[in-house]
Amino acid sequence: MNLLEQKYERWNSRDFEGAAACYTEDGKHYDQTLGLTWTPKEFAEFTKLMFDVIPELRFEIVHSFQADSYVAGELVMYGRFENDIGDVRATGKPLKVHVATFGEIRNGKIHRMTDYYNKLELTGEA
User: Fold this and answer.
1) 49: Cβ–Cβ under 8 A, 6 or more apart, which residues?
2) By mean pLDDT, which of 45-49, 93-97, 116-120 is the weakest?
């Protein structure tokens, strides 16, 4: 199981600290669509928030790969968008958001990971 698979397995099982433990201590996670950046500790708090916003949240990895220094994948995020997140208003509808993610590995952990997705899929406009 590669680092991406480990991280999302932990996220899906609501093991927030376990998901954050996939990162280096000085790691960063970037959400390019919403313009947000987190440290591993902040990322754990964000994952908790996401389950409040999207109670049925789960990620399915469609494709992933890992080399010595990089990990990447194509994911689909599923759930029901129940509560607002920042300036993005909840729709109350089921969602299906396609995500591309790319990360740099250092010392066997994720040092930097960046997510890319279409905000219109999140808002139900796509």
Assistant:
1) 85
2) 45-49
